[in-house]
């Protein structure tokens, strides 16, 4: 492109209104091939399994991460699988209009998580970390959302390849905290003496 044309193009972009830029962004997203992405779905309290079953019946790829916990029944104590993120599960979809309404109309669904009413996909890295935690018998605790500290990857042990933020409290074992940005939720898991490497 000639220098004069570059200047004209620059000023053309610079003078576009915010609404025009949003429209362009939406068009680019639409033309990206409608690839399937992971979206977080908010379910009614204690309806995660119901929603999971509803999605399976509709042939919608679904992920409901769970963790081993002790049951709260007074008559007997045993380890059971419970939702890792109570109230949330994930669907893998291109979110075309038909599938969007299939998801929304599933019994127990509250909404698809997004910003300003528009669904926003969950990062693949965060889904990968949740898959590593899925079904673990390690102690995993929900805690305040955190995005501070060194980014690390666990290099050994049952949670190998898990990425998150390293947190160390004086006199206590270190923890790796997995944060789900869209949900503003964090999960902390103790790493004992496992090797961790700092990542960028």
Q: What series of H and E elements makes up the topology?
A: HHEHEEEEHEEEHEEEEEE
Helix count, DSSP H or I runs of 4 or more residues: 5
> Helicity, in percent?
25-40%
Note the quaternary state here.
single chain
The end-to-end span amounts to: 36 Å
Q: Report the biggest beta sheet as strand number plus sense, adding barrel if it closes.
A: 6 strands, antiparallel
Strand order of the largest sheet: 9-13-12-11-10-14
Task: Point out poorly predicted stretches.
Answer: 1-33
**Overall mean pLDDT score?**
83
Overall radius of gyration: 21 Å
Query: SS-based structural class?
Result: alpha+beta
**What is the global morphology?**
globular
Strand segment tally: 14
Strand content: 25-35%
What features would you describe in this structure?
This protein has helices spanning 3-14, 18-30, 48-57, 97-104, 124-133; strands spanning 37-43, 61-63, 66-70, 79-83, 88-93, 109-112, 114-115, 118-119, 140-143, 151-154, 163-167, 175-180, 185-190, 196-198. By secondary structure, it is an alpha+beta fold. It starts with a helix and ends with a strand. The relative contact order is 0.14. The model is unreliable at 1-33 (pLDDT under 50).
